[in-house]
TrEMBL record:
Source organism superkingdom: Eukaryota
Name of the featured protein: Cyclin-Q
Gene designation: LOC103104853
Cleavable signal peptide: none
Organism: Monodelphis domestica (Gray short-tailed opossum)
Gene3D superfamilies: Cyclin-like
């Protein structure tokens, strides 16, 4: 019975984190953030809650602070005022724009104080290696191997990038090395469209092991399974 309760609690928390990381992504786009700073903000958010309890902090305040901190880490600096305004509009779509009153300044101070808390909790380790550069390299290599017509008639590249972006709704970024995630999203994108890599069956080792020598098929399967769980969760959240 306790195990069932614990599992239900973890699923409930995962849904909260899914919704909040979706907020980070959408707010990030509205703030003009590039994909790497958004990925960093999501990773900071997930890592913080791996070290703390969800019910101890307001997840949306942590998310706003993660956006602010990620802008600094990735040198795409954002004003706290812009983060607050975009967040307020996202969370309260029918409300009026915020006034520069005492509540606004309190929220601004909370974001700054929360940033310092996050840095301490994460031991100032807020710089991460993301899968993006690996995926770009793998896509270029794979395109050169593939039949041009076969490559151009399927949106493998677009789907792989979308899968990578959506992976940040969960904690894949903390569980697996960046090159492994890059290969796995590319593997799943190829599988979605039934695209086969030329001469893969005759090769000494599979194409994905050419990209990442220490990667195994069970690890790819685990990453793909985690991704599918994220999409399953998406259908369950209003």
């Amino acid at each position: 019975m306790e195990e069932v309760k614990k599992e239900g609690h973890l699923v409930s928390e995962a849904k909260v984190h899914f919704k909040v990381t979706r907020f980070i992504m959408e707010a990030g786009v509205k703030l003009g953030m590039q994909s790497i700073p958004i990925a960093t903000a999501c990773t900071i958010y997930h890592k913080f809650f791996c070290e703390t309890k969800l019910d101890a902090y307001d997840p949306y305040l942590i998310a706003m602070s993660a956006i602010y901190l990620a802008g600094k880490v990735e040198e795409q600096h954002l004003r706290t005022r812009d983060i607050i305004n975009v967040s307020h509009r996202y969370l309260n779509p029918k409300s009026e724009p915020l006034e520069l009153d005492s509540w606004f300044w309190e929220l601004r101070d909370s974001i700054v104080q929360c940033e310092l808390l996050m840095l301490r909790v994460l031991h100032f380790r807020v710089s991460f290696q993301h899968p993006h550069k690996y995926l770009l390299h793998y896509l270029i290599s794979l395109k050169n191997w593939m039949n041009r017509h076969s490559w151009e008639r399927t949106p493998v590249s677009l789907v792989a990038w979308a899968l990578l972006r959506d992976s940040y709704h969960g904690v894949l970024c903390l569980r697996y090395p960046a090159p492994h995630i890059a290969v796995a999203v590319l593997y799943l994108a190829l599988q979605c469209y039934g695209v086969e890599v030329p001469a893969d069956s005759e090769a000494e080792k599979p194409w994905w092991q050419v990209f990442s020598e220490d990667l195994t098929k069970p690890v790819i399967d685990n990453i793909v399974s985690d991704l599918i769980q994220i999409y399953t969760m998406d259908t369950e959240i209003p």
